[in-house]
Every structure is written in C-alpha cells, then in structure tokens.
Amino acid sequence: MSWFGIWWAWIVFGFAMGVLEVIAPAYVFLGFAIGAVVTGVLVGIGVLGGLPATLLVFALASLAAWFMTRRMLGPQAGTAKIWDRDINDN
C-alpha cells in the first residue's frame, strides 16, 4: 500500500504544509494544508479508497480552501493606504 491510502500520512502532510505556511506566509500552503487534512479525514473514515479519487478530492479540497482563505484573508478592494502628508513635514 502506498502512502496515498494511509490516513495519518495525509494528516502529517497537512501539518507539514501548515508549518511551511508559518515559515513562508503566502496563504498558498494553507490551502494545501487544509486540503490534506480533509483528505486524511476522508481516507480515515473510509470514504476514499482509490488513488485517482484521493488525488481528485485533495485537489478540489485544496482549491476550495485556497479560495476561502483568499476571500477571508486576502487583499480587500479599496483598502490601499493613501498618504496625504510626508513624515518629514512639521
């Protein structure tokens, strides 16, 4: 059996992606982390069995998590800071 069918391997992979997100914050690895944990839970409860289905669920869960985190934590429209005076003005 490869690691694709082992539930705890997906959870460990998710936590590793979470650590990588803390080291290099870009909100990209967070989507992969959430997708891996969701996939690990689904493999653990027996919903997923085959390799193609597991990879498809991982890809879709990661993409959905990335869109959610981008929506919640990403740049907001119209939030650019406009400076109206210089720091050196008295």
Automatic annotation (TrEMBL):
Keywords: Membrane, Transmembrane, Transmembrane helix. The chain crosses the membrane at residues 7-28, 34-67. This is NfeD-like C-terminal, partner-binding. It comes from Pseudorhodobacter antarcticus. The lineage of its organism: Bacteria, Pseudomonadati, Pseudomonadota, Alphaproteobacteria, Rhodobacterales.
